[in-house]
Specification:
heterodimer, A: about 400 residues, alpha/beta, Peroxisomal Thiolase, Chain A, domain 1, 2 domains, 10-stranded mixed sheet, two-stranded antiparallel sheet, B: about 100 residues, mainly alpha, Non-ribosomal Peptide Synthetase Peptidyl Carrier Protein, Chain A, about 50% helix, 3-oxoacyl-[acyl-carrier-protein] synthase activity (chain A), cell inner membrane (chain A), transmembrane helix (chain A), Nodulation protein E (chain A)
Chain lengths: ~400, ~100
Amino acid sequence: MKRVVITGAGTINAIGHNVAETLESFREGRCGIAELDVRDADRLSVNIGAQVKGFISEGLFNRQQMALYDRFTMFALIAAREAIGQSGLEFTGELAARTGAVLGNSGGGMTTLDENYRSVYEDGKNRVHPFVVPKLMNNAAASHVSMEFNLKGPTFTVSSACASSNHAMSQAFMMVRSGMSPVMITGGSESMLCFGGVKAWEGLRVMSKDACRPFSANRNGMVQGEGAGVFVFEELEHAQKRGAEILAEVVGFAMTSDASDIVMPSKQGAARAISGAIQDARLNPSDVGYINAHGTGTAANDKTESAAVADAFGPHADTLMMSSTKSMHGHLIGGTGAVELLACIMAVRDGIIAPTIGYEEPDPECALDVVPNEAREAKVEVALSNAFAFGGLNAVLALRRF
Amino acid sequence: MTKSALNGQQGDGTMTGANTDIREKVIAIIAEQAVLEPSDVSMESTLEDLGIDSLGLVESIFAIEEAFDIQVPFNANEPSQSDFDISNVSSIVAGVEKLVAEQHA
């Protein structure tokens, strides 16, 4: 089996338009959640979200690209450019033939859908733009990343709701670890902060109307975000031969299904994924110093996740740190695990733990060290990133300091 | 507008005002798609000459439909079988003129 390292990272999200800005926001505990700026916001009962503000596609994309890319594809491309740029890789010949892009996404081109449903249903138009399908299909982002960077290996989209990015990165990890591909581009993106996207989530009655306060006793729901995170996963020797900078090592993963309920999480399913990732990485639970929690801020997730961590780690659960950065960048749904992996890289590489902001009252059902409100310096050898999706699909990745 | 005014060429071969408008609008749409100045698009140019690919073609047809409020009978699967001849700018303009005339008939 090959060792797998991360040699590039890129992102755009509500708290940063690149990795440096995002890590600074993590350190400063900056909140990207604000009043939603979407059409017909007055008809929404949930009026907050973590939108990417100040994003101007002109200059980043030409006119034809802007006509052809949904917002979620633009986010993926911006993050991929940063990640691949940092890695210094150029894809030609054999490397291009074996490198692919596996990206997570849940909703596809939701803004494209929203605009065109309006056009045909609300405005009664009988003609839509010819690019509606190529814009909204949820493999559009992965396909455009492959086209921009000449990636001719395995390329596809993984869709498992809130765990999409972690499942995608697990696929990429397996491909590099097995020797199938020397390099894979992976992560995820999402953009569903449009009227229909928010309205659909409202229906489930799990959204907060004021803030995302994971693990806090007075938490009252999740807040949606948008953006992308993309990474370069590279086989260790391949990276070392070319003198690449290594951000962290990916050492293990596990995926489980609760096989119980379409929305309610299961402690056992989550705990099996956590323990599975530790076993896959051939580590002891006590090696884990930090967990980036799924931590959605819903009543059900946070207590179930806390109980799962307690089960998986035993007494060590009281020693490790677990924070939810969704309090800052919101829940990016299919892109969330990718942006959250940045907090794990920061923990193992920089020794800085991103906080859970908005934390106000301890909850006895979430009695772990959730790094409340302020970032902390700590030496961490191994970090886990949890993702537990609607549908009971769980995926956990393990990173180690390199 | 009367049908004859829209119908195109007069006996002496000059264009009526309405058809000059159609030609200019179609050329503007094609030029925009090709990222060229309208003056660089000649009536003999083919879409291939202008660098317009298959997606550019369907986008041009969409823009033509929007601009003239017409339905262009074009199926990308069998372009040569379509009633709408896309072999060059001139044939596209003629096709649009015919559709506009039919629509107003």
